[in-house]
Amino acid sequence: MRNVTVERARSPLIAPEWQLIAFLWFCYVLNQADRQVVYTLFPALQKTFGFSNAVLGLTGALFLWVFGVFSPIAGVLGDRFSKTTLVLGSLTVWSFLPFCRGCRQTDRSCWSAERYLEFQNRFSCLQVMRSSRQRMDRARARGRLRFSGPASLVGVAIGGSTSAFIAQKFDWRVSFWLLGGMGILFAIPLSRFFRRMPAEFAEIESGPRADLRSFFVLFKIPTVRIIAFAIAVATFGLFLVYTWLPTFLYDKFQIGLARAGFEASVYPQIGTACGLLVGGWLADRYNPRVKASRFGVIVTALFCGAPCMFLLGWTGRLAEARLAAMAVGFFAGFITGNQAAATFDVVPSRCALPPLAF
């Protein structure tokens, strides 16, 4: 009886798997917040450095170029090295880089390195959660893994709105310093948790290690090429909104940087959250009867989202622009929630790789 009492006293108040999800969820929030801060502060950068729109566009494109080119490489690294080490290392280094960015804004090599480290951190977080599923109930694990979606939305909303407010009230550099400081400080409890994390959470699921050839094998499947093209088109429109909407609202409606950052960061994410729920429900509802239901949801989102994006640029009223931004986010949620599942529908299990969605 005494041993049972001692064991209960030593048991944590929060289950280890929930602690793992909480730590990695916050990593996601920091990751996505840092991504959106740059876009929101475009007007401040123009005012400080005299950047042209072309230079700002190139700055925003750095993220996508690095994200796309290094995705396969990050996958190979995540399959060959300790995922907890990759999470902790990339978080620490990428959090330090905002300090350099605040001091030397025009150093694009620093920006490129930060984009890669952000991606590696995000991919490694997914891999750690994926490995831990061996010791979790499968249904509960799937629900916990979905936490990455809300984390992305919360990160974008917080990063965009708070950075704009800080830039308007104080200085745009403060946003980078605060974000970097939070990441560095957060690395301390994260490191302690990883050291005492149950060993089975760090185990790697059995299976062959992937290499760069695995990436190209997928493109031998015609339907995968079609999905990739559709997602590329959707990503073009989505990041056009993410990159330029704060500056667009700031210039067109003269509403101030703080409000422009809030409008551009929060309302599209509200729409995306609703779109994830509705799009996932529609695909799951009709998938037993229509095997191409997920493809249908993606195609529907492309056709319905295009007029919303046109309205966003055409309207002269802020309220209509807000509704259009929410609608764009809503149909983006259709795509984001179904792109990985649609790929798995056509990829044989023997060559299926862990998906990574925007």
Strand residues, percent: under 5%
Coarse shape: globular
How many structural domains are formed by the residues?
2
What is the helix content? over 70%
Cα-to-Cα separation, first versus last residue: 51 Å
Structural class: mainly alpha
Considering the protein shown, what is the CATH homologous superfamily of the largest domain? Answer: MFS general substrate transporter like domains
CATH class of the largest domain: Mainly Alpha
Number of strands: 0
- Identify low-pLDDT runs: 1-9, 105-121, 133-145, 352-358
CATH domain fold name of the largest domain: Growth Hormone, Chain: A
**How many H/I helices?**
14
User: Which architecture of the largest domain does the CATH hierarchy give at level 2?
Assistant: Up-down Bundle
Rg, rounded, reads: 21 Å
Mean pLDDT level: 77
Structure characteristics:
14 helices, 81% helix, disordered N terminus, 358 residues, Growth Hormone, Chain: A, 2 domains, disordered C terminus, mainly alpha, globular
Description:
The chain has 358 residues and is mainly α. The protein folds into two domains: 203 residues, Growth Hormone, Chain: A; 134 residues, no CATH class. The protein is built from 14 helices and no strands. Helix 2 packs across helix 8 and helix 12 runs parallel beside helix 14. The termini are far apart.
